[in-house]
Design brief:
By secondary structure, the protein is α/β, with parallel strands linked by helices. The chain contains 13 helices and 17 strands. Helix 2 packs parallel to helix 5. The radius of gyration is 58 Å and the shape is elongated. It comes from Rotaria magnacalcarata.
Length: about 625
Amino acid sequence: MDAEASNNKKQRKLALIIGNNDYKIKPLDNCVNDANDLSEKLKTIGFIVTTKTNLKCEQMDKEIEDFTNSIKPYDLVVFFFAGHSVQNDNKNYLIPCDADTIESLSKQEGHGVHAQAILSLMYQKDPHAVVHILDCCRTYSLPSVDKNRNWNPASKGMAKMQPSEGTRTLIAFACGPDTVAEDKSPNNHNGMFTFHLLNHVTQSGKNIVDIFGTVSDEVSKASEGRQIPQTTFSRNPKDVFFVSPHSETTQLNSQPAMASSSSRQGYGIIILGNSGVGKSFLANILLGSETFDHRAAARSVTTETEFKEIKMGNENYAIFNIPGLIEADQQCIERNKREIDKAFVERPTSLILYVFGSQNGRIRDEDVVAFNALNKAYPLKVESLVLIVNGAPKKRLEDYEGEVIVLLKELIQVSCQSLCVLDMIDENNQSERKKLKNQLLQAIVERTPRDHIKKQDLELQREEVRKAKAEIKVLQADFQNKLQMHENQIKEQQRMYDKKFDEIRNQNELMQVLIENQRKEQEKRDNEHKEAIQRANELTVKLRAEVQAEKRARQQAEQRVKEQTEQRTREQAEQKAREQAEQRAREQTGQRAREQTGQRAREHVQRASKSISSIMENLFSEIVFRSTEFWDNKV
């Protein structure tokens, strides 16, 4: 609500919470958990909550219609849906659990719930503000689709939605348009978006815009940006609060009596069981004080329902001390029925601790009878139920707890998800009391308070008790017979196992001998192989040395041949050079001889020429003389 509303008018806070898991096509894991957990949170801050899960189409239509008809002017309205959705022609449809009957998108509008239409119906009631939360952006496919429509058969996410401008509205999507939300979170119990929403929805003095802004930031960070929630709003709803800044809680003005007490005052821890099983003692252990009388007595000590408030974590709990159901006379039984009813009326949303007494470790028949009678009247939710076996002997079989679980499954027909076996302790030993308290607290923190609505009156008559005890004795006897039979079978199997084990052991010993012989033979072969390898290595070294020596000899021989060849080549070259020198000498000698001969010849020629010239001169002189003499004579 906002500050103005709290000052001027009484404002109711209404919520319709729907979670669908049970789809035949792509069933989901955590939507019902999301719906239940958010409902519990909203109840603690004064909301009148209507919670529905796994609804079919007609049921969803009816619940939405009934809810919108209950809205009055100035109400703060929250609508939350977790499940599958599809978009068609930019319209968002919330899918009921019988969506497999939708043959095509052309028939979608008659089966899916139009998200915008829900808003329109709420606007008609003139509420103060509407918070429309859709944690349904998960991948989904219809069995068949109309190919002529604007439809992606594996539609991702949701289309954008526009809030009315006339009413304060906040529309929160678990992820952005056309993207997909994660159905898992760090606690593996809620979807990613709702997991973070639960951490902030009850914050006092924080407006809804800031709350969803914080949730968006945390989801984006936790998913590493894969999922980013989107928020759309109109008329500035920043002055709208789930919890007013002026008060921590808001009292309800029209909630039924059984739920109003829980919403205003917190949860209950209702400890049930017969007289003498230690209920009052366990309540005192949880409270840490001797609040309730638990003295040993011949008759019941507790005859009226009483409780005391304590703070556990962030929640208030009322721990109840209640009379046991079965008594010696019917008048006391009837009184105890009324006292038990008072606890469920006072705290309908509670944890249930049912205490079985232990007789030397055996479950008492009357405790089973009382449990079955209580479970018929107030169907006990397994997620809020802790079964306690109190005063078990410390010396017990190792598989005692497993045996008790199997026995209780036979006797009470309820899933035993949380069993707490408590040892018989010394009440004055503080260490043992502390250990016992820790055991109880550990079992309690693993459970979740749930609404327990009375289905029928507690029906229990002394004669019926005797008859039921006789039936239980038969069941217990049958169980013991079956157990004995199983033990005999186990012993026989153990004997056969021991025999087989001996055979296997003998075979193993023989195998060990064979393996040892093989090992020795192998070792011998290995040694021989090593020796052979060593000899081969030595021979290889020897051969390598011989080869190297031969190679060196060959290289030396080749070197000598090469040197000899080079020597012969040099000698031949020298011989050839000598011959060439001799040839040149001979040629030079011949040349000189020829030159000398030529010189002598030329000298002879010159001398001959000179002689001939002299002779010719003499002859010519003679001729001239003769001629002259001739001519002189002739004349």
